[in-house]
Amino acid sequence: MAFCLAELHLWSTKSSLQVKDTDIGTYQYYDKGEPANPLEHHYYNEKLHFCEARGYSWTPSNRRPEKLRDSLKEFEELLQTNTCVHTRWRNKHCCQPLKVLGSLQSEGNPLDCRFSLLQPYQLLTVELPGTREGFWADSCVYECSRGRLHRLSSTRIPLTSRPVSCSRHPSERSLLLGLSDSSLVLFDQRRGVSLLASCPVPPTLLAWHPAGAVVVVGGEQGELMCFDVGLAPVRMALVAEDEAPAETLRLADHLRSGGGLEGLRWAAGLEADVLMLAFHGGPLAALRFRLGALTGGLVGLGEMLQQRLRCGQVREALGVLEAMDWSIMGDECHRGLSSITNHLLRLELNAEREALLEAALGVFYAPPAPLSDVVILEFREPISKCARRFFHHLLRDLHYVASDKGEVVLADVAKRKANEIESAAGNEDPQRVGDDVMRVSRQTERNQTAAGPSYPNTPTTQVDGRANQRRLQAESIRVTVSPLRQTGSSEGDSRNDDEDLGMLHVVHLGMV
């Protein structure tokens, strides 16, 4: 099961948070000296050495000119006596003097309003209807030109209940809405489809990762949930001796805070691994994700898809693939589709895997929104090879089923069509077809071994009636081992023309 491992760092020196010494996934700052109640901190020194060995600061420095310790205490006092209305990570962009360029009366009540990151002269809003007009949301685009605002487009999204939060995907092609009935709706404007998922946590806070692969949902009581771009939950757990990943991370189990969670914001950049958490009345915290070496420290769409496949979550990986845009990341889409089909074709074919294979190929052959001609021409040939392999598997299974039922004509037709597909693929990629044939041969030998020993010219009786058919197919594949011949000679060409086309040659290249 794929899950995210994280560490919780609290920017506070208060002992009232009651962080346990045995909790090696939660850290806070401490004043100098031993704790006031040593009986309550049995592993104080052990955790001190544990933090310092990993380069974490145990006591903030108070050197001039920063004086971090005094600044931190002053900051905590401000959080207790004032209300924080907005939090964001510091960057190098400076705000210039502001002036009013234009104004416009919106038709609905604005739930969200922000500048477009891709079109700087456009405003993106989410507007809600009146209280008695129903449940929907309008995603609107406004443009500022010549000192006036005018609406370019408006898309109505039907909902099941009143939305309480929203967040736009970094690509600005999807809109995630959190509803009051503890559910999530992801509207994909590119495909024109909506995904609905239940969320045990009231979705009052939403925060997309800058790479757009995952979104974190926060509740007022300090609960966190993580979903991928296909709205499949991603389990989370804090670092511990024995991790217990769960769909909901309850921060109340790791610290005691008087106020609820009121802010979530990811650090900037595609390689961001820190999520800022703001509690009402303090403290300010940072949730740092340990993404690991297999993903290269990244949490992009391609990395999430591959991690799902490593854990055997094919359906979740397919959801990530469906959300990827071929016009922007065509190579990653092709790589993901090939990975899913190869993963499924290595397994025994059944109804569920057959449906998953059809859905994976349908991402390219039957997309909700038509693909551009450039994308089709670029990836048509490599994806057709995956489709031929899938059809070959279907025809092979049809051949065996028809043989068991006594349908000789249907079995022969299925076998002939499978051989035609195999030979057509062999003209383009003989190495891969050779691997497929050897795999089919090994599968046949395993089936014979499981069914019982079979000897030449000795009839055997099997329960399922498949052994004789598979033995005859295995005998029709002849494998010869020959030394490496020099290519381009007339003698070698003449021998190749006279040899049987159904013979598979294994060339010995010598020892290194």
From TrEMBL:
The keyword Cell membrane applies. GO terms for biological process: cilium organization; establishment of protein localization; nervous system development. The keyword Cell membrane applies. It is found in: Cell membrane; Cytoplasm, Cytoskeleton, Cilium axoneme. One of its GO terms (cellular component) is plasma membrane. Residues 444-466, 480-500 are annotated as: Disordered. Its main location: membrane. Pfam families: Frtz. Residues 446-463 have a biased composition (Polar residues). Keywords: Cell membrane, Cell projection, Cilium, Cilium biogenesis/degradation, Cytoplasm, Cytoskeleton, Membrane, Repeat, WD repeat. Belongs to the WD repeat fritz family. This is WD repeat-containing and planar cell polarity effector protein fritz homolog.
